[in-house]
Design goal:
single chain, 419 residues, mainly alpha, two-stranded antiparallel ribbon, 73% helix
Length: 419
Amino acid sequence: MPDAVSVPTTWMMLPFGILLASIALAPLWFADWWAKYYPRVAFALGGVTLGYYLFVLRAYPRVVVVGYEYLSFMVLIGALFVVSGGIHISVKGEATPLVNVVFLLVGAVLANLLGTTGASMLLIRPWIRMNKYRVTAHHIVFFIFIISNVGGCLTPIGDPPLFLGFLKGIPFWWVAEHCWPMWATALGILLAMFFVMDRINFRRAPKPIREKETAREQWRFDGLGNVFFLAVILGAVFVERPLLLREALMLAAAIGSYYTTRKTVHAANHFDFHPIQEVAILFVGIFATMMPALDWLQANAVKLGDPTPAFFFWGSGGLSSVLDNAPTYLSFLSALMGMARTPDVHQLLVTQSTNLAAISVGAVFFGANTYIGNGPNFMVKAIADQQKVRTPTFLGYLVRFTLPFMMPMLLIVWFLFFR
């Protein structure tokens, strides 16, 4: 728990709120302005908070810890982004509903190895190509539901919130051990829903297209040498000493991948560094501005009393639907530590395992509820729009897909595991 001297004033949570509101709303209301000035907004708000911690609270160790967490977070995300950008999948032939279900299931598993961002960027283009004669909104949205979000719930590599938990001391396999029943239940429900919808879509397609879709698909993989670099990154996750060796290994894997991958593979994937550059800039601001919110929550969480797992599931999930799920996860983790009156994560795992599972599942699953809930969501939509695929609007996404499909699944998960 933060020392009394370093507990910030509640006013210092304002930059955090302004930044998250800007990330959520500015791309919708002021897209051109935001695209040009978001670095200035992130750096300015982060600078205000850093100045407060350094010159008012003089909490130098706190700033150093957050800086290291940001570095570790970005190196992992960036390395997976580069390596996945060096693998290209080309598909000939068209997919049946059953093939599509298998593809989504494999993608969900792969999300735990490449991260939801890496898996989404690797698989969205072949997904569109294999359904090109009948691709529609439900193909894109269920891809976001399953591969960009829910699928990555089993490892810290899978989704950014879980990696932040890993950096806080939660063991690597803890999430898989405690959350696999929720993961399997959610995936089973979403895949069954998708199969029904895709079967209806398949039957409505003209007969020549249905006959094409029963033909055998032909797959081709380029850049498979990057599997070696992926293995290096996965192995590096378990390296804890000496300090920064983990990050150095991941960075070396990313550099090796980039320079050994043929330019034709990067060109086929339309690979560039803009998406990861935007994430790096925004998360500088997020990691800096969220310090007061996390510290205040941890110091005042005892006032919450004894919340139930349902509170943590719906609370972390509800905010993850409209805010970035990584800082939301950390906020509730800090609140849980404060409520348990312990900064020791290992003790937390013994006394608060159900609540911690509720936070983990809520942050990951609910990130699929809107385009702004998780980083890959908008990236997938942008690629689909570029490929001339009809995607729902922000409100259309909520009304046509989140409410009728995600909400029933979330209610079932809550009823079975966190009620």
